Hints:
Elements: H1 9-16, E1 23-25, H2 40-51, E2 57-64, E3 67-74, H3 85-100, E4 105-111, H4 119-138, E5 143-152, H5 153-156, E6 165-168, E7 174-175, H6 179-186, H7 197-202, E8 208-209, H8 215-225, H9 233-245, H10 257-264, H11 272-279, E9 281-285, E10 298-305, E11 308-315, H12 321-326, H13 334-349, E12 354-360, H14 367-371, H15 374-387, E13 392-401, H16 402-406, E14 413-417, E15 421-423, H17 427-435, H18 441-448, H19 452-458, E16 463-465, H20 476-494, H21 499-511
Parallel strand pairs: 3-4, 4-5, 5-6, 5-7, 6-8, 11-12, 12-13, 13-14, 13-15, 14-16
Antiparallel strand pairs: 1-2, 2-3, 9-10, 10-11
Amino acid sequence: MESLPRLSPRQRLKSILDDGKYIELYKEMTTGNPLEFKGYDEKVKAAQEKTHEKEAVVVTKGTINGEEAIVMVMDARFMMASMGSVVGEKITSGIEYATAHKLPIIIFTASGGARMQEGIFSLMQMAKTSAALAKHDEAKLLYISVLTDPTTGGVTASFATLGDIILAEPGALVGFAGRRVIEQTIGEKLPDTFQHAEFLLKHGMIDKIVPREELKTTLGKILKLHREQKISFKEKIQSMRSEKQSNVKFTDTKQSAWERVKIARKIDRPRSRYYIDSFVEDFVELHGDRLYRDDPALIGGIGKIGGIEVTIIAHNKGSNLQENIEYNFGMTHPEGYHKALRLMKQAEKFNRPIISFIDTPGAYCGVGAEERGQGTAIAVNLMEMANIKVPIIAGVIGEGGSGGALAIGVADRVFMQQNTTYSILSPEGFASILWKDSSRAEEAAETMKLTASDLYKYGIIDAVIEEPGGGAHMAKEAAAENLKNYLVQELKILRTKSKETLVKERYERFRQFGK
């Protein structure tokens, strides 16, 4: 697979930073020879003359679309950007500077691996850089890693893959062990796409592949979405008034439970992707669980609703048969729930509210899902969501089926659109298990009390969002407007609550069910 032509650090900085301007940090640091390795000094000198750089990384401070950041760029021309003591020292110093000055970090990685001539000192740079990033992470600061060609060895196994958000250039070679070593070990020839950016995206290791011409715009958008959100005293007073006056009203029609089941399942009903495209501004979709793969049955990303930065977690159903097959009909694998939790914990780090759209017949039932711990994935999400210290709003926009729905549904506010369903399992499954007759599904739907109006009366949900006459599919724009208005109203209220209050009230909300 073809990778993009490699850029020097100065070319990269010129293409990314505003007006190509920056302040360079630690530029006088030069390499020593800790092991007194014969010929090493001459090799370093030759690399310096070839590249006109002192070492294989350049550390700078600059702005991208007006957003200040520490930007580091590794140089594959300099001894394949192998990580010696000074490379590690410059990167660590840059991280420490960013932490002290409360700045985000962007690192463009490129490396052939360890600097062999420095032996164990090279190996220690993996721990040193990672430890510095732990302090940056503890300070709740953003780190974006951009993987360029090639990124291998110890760099991959340390700072390159520790980003809050990991981007990659198309075709970039990224991996830990070398291709030749793996082929010799397993005795097989590897496919051409192995260890390239596209392979990593499919296998859940990176968030996004970004064409080079879109990098500056994408980075600027991500930086803006991570600005510190401050709430004024006036907003707090307004939210207190809104909460007191909040009384969601809706006009319930006489449709039967089974009719609502059929509306919720309609192929032309607006799905998560439609609502995201309709009212989530500057949306950046993020991919992968960092463990195994990316699950297309669940969408995750960051954006703004009504000017408020949010994390979006959403089941992904298609609008036609081909899309539904591709998205597994919104039935999530363990990897989808891992991705959801990863992004929810990221939202907690950056004090960003979470919006969850539920639309699934249930978690995927299959051999692979069981082998990879489907039950555990759901259970961990339930426990973690109960204690996440940012506002969470979750709601059913189609089918809310079983634990697969609840796995992204533990929230401060839970809503349902008017013609949706939320239940322990499908009516067909209910009738089949309890009555041994799946043809009694219509009767089961009535018995199960699975409609929005039923669950509102029971207090299981907090609000019913009105749909246009006949269902959301009849007037999608109006349905989207109703949903957006509800979300903005509740976001304004919940954002003013303390972390302790959010967690306490969320616990009490679920504690009451079944008393």
